[in-house]
């Protein structure tokens, strides 16, 4: 049944990706037409400025100004050609050569910024020439030149707006980033499979199964490298939130599905449902499962988060890990421990609390390592509260133990010759 659900989920994802790809292709065609039109206008601007530059004006100032304008315009033209070339390369599928696609996306960002800066510089020089010619009444052809300069102003303004347009929905850069988001999600989906976590019954079993779990969760370096460069590029373009949402959704769902391979129904047991003779087995299972979840499942998720979001900063990966930890039912484990501490005091409860303390103390260093930062603050708070309850509860029972012995004195020894339960504790 679960396999069928997985196939259906993949089918829906592929259909969604196909629809998105068709929309992106259509938008790219429109972007290409707009760029060709701007290129024609740009060439027209160059032609209109050239007659001005070859006139023998008796003004050294305007000659210097026109030389500067033509240099800036030449730079604009070269950058614009680069943008055209990158636009063509980014029309291809991102997954075909991901690292090259990410590299070209970064180059496009840089080219667009350079285009904007050069347009601003050319506009500034052209404005100086315009003001100079406007104030010179001795030149009969000023009106023609002024009209050409005004036309050039409009073209430069359109070229300068390319960067902003590229970032809007349907723009060149926006489409490229959409493709990277699709590739990021696809890579996660294809490499996140539910793990067959099993209840461990011995230290040997624990060691053998641990190796299998770690191998199942580790991603190859080639894959983590792809996820890392995509996340870095999306972050540079203010799309980190969506990137993190996709990451937590996929890895969090994978953690929940992995936990379904364990029988964790006992975690929902209430205080009133606990029986003294049935608690020990539940606590034994609780300890083994908690160690498995923390040391194997969450530790590798923690390492994966740090690698994928390493170049963005600790706040980014700690935030993602904290949400994935929540999906791993860590709070259910803490809640179960709290229920045990709320049982009425008796010698059997003392054994339960000591068993729980052994598990929690053994995980203390791992908890401190994994659950750091603001995103994991609630986990630290509830864990600290549980440890306090366990220690205080055990201390209280120790103080009452002498009274419990007195109450047992009138009791007859077991008829089968076994050790009395209180002594057996």
Automatic annotation (TrEMBL):
The keyword Ribonucleoprotein does not apply. One of its GO terms (biological process) is protein transport. InterPro entries: Cullin_repeat-like_dom_sf, Exo70, Exo70_C. It comes from the Eukaryota. GO terms for cellular component: exocyst. Pfam families: Exo70_C, Exo70_N. Keywords: Exocytosis, Protein transport, Transport. One of its GO terms (molecular function) is phosphatidylinositol-4,5-bisphosphate binding. Residues 285-423 form the Exocyst complex subunit Exo70 C-terminal domain. PANTHER family: EXOCYST COMPLEX PROTEIN EXO70, EXOCYST SUBUNIT EXO70 FAMILY PROTEIN. Belongs to the EXO70 family. Component of the exocyst complex. This is Exocyst subunit Exo70 family protein. It comes from Trifolium subterraneum (Subterranean clover).
């Amino acid at each position: 049944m679960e396999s069928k659900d997985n196939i259906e989920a993949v089918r829906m994802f592929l259909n969604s990706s196909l629809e998105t790809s068709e929309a992106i292709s259509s938008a790219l065609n429109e972007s290409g037409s707009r760029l060709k039109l701007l290129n024609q206008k740009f060439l027209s601007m160059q032609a209109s400025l050239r007659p001005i530059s070859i006139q023998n004006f008796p003004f050294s100032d305007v000659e210097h100004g026109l030389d500067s304008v033509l240099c800036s315009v030449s730079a604009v033209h070269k950058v614009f050609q680069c943008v055209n070339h990158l636009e063509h390369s980014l029309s291809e599928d991102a997954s075909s050569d991901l690292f090259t696609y990410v590299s070209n996306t970064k180059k496009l960002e840089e080219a667009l910024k350079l285009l904007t800066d050069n347009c601003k510089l050319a506009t500034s020089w052209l404005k100086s020439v315009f003001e100079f010619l406007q104030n010179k009444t001795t030149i009969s052809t000023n009106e023609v030149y002024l009209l050409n300069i005004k036309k050039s102003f409009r073209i430069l303004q359109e070229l300068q707006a390319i960067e902003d347009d590229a970032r809007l929905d349907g723009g060149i850069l926006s489409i490229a980033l959409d493709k990277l988001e699709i590739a990021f999600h696809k890579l996660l989906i294809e490499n996140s499979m539910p793990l067959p976590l099993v209840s461990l019954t011995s230290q040997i079993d624990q060691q053998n199964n641990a190796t299998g779990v770690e191998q199942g969760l580790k991603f190859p370096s080639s894959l983590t490298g792809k996820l890392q460069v995509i996340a870095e590029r999306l972050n540079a373009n203010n799309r980190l939130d969506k990137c993190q949402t996709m990451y937590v959704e996929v890895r969090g769902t994978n953690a929940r599905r992995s936990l379904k391979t364990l029988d964790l129904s006992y975690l929902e047991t209430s205080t009133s449902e606990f029986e003294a003779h049935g608690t020990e087995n539940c606590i034994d299972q609780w300890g083994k499962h908690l160690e498995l979840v923390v040391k194997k499942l969450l530790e590798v998720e923690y390492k994966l988060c740090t690698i994928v979001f390493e170049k963005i900063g600790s706040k980014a990966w700690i935030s993602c890990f904290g949400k994935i930890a929540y999906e791993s039912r860590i709070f259910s484990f803490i809640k179960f421990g709290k229920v045990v501490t709320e049982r009425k005091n008796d010698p059997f409860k003392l054994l339960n609390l000591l068993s729980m303390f052994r598990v929690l103390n053994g995980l203390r260093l791992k908890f401190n390592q994994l659950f750091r930062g603001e995103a994991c603050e609630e986990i630290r708070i509830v864990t600290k509260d549980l440890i306090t309850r366990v220690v205080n509860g055990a201390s209280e029972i120790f103080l009452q133990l002498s009274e419990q012995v007195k109450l047992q004195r009138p009791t007859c020894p077991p008829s089968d010759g076994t050790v009395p339960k209180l002594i057996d504790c």
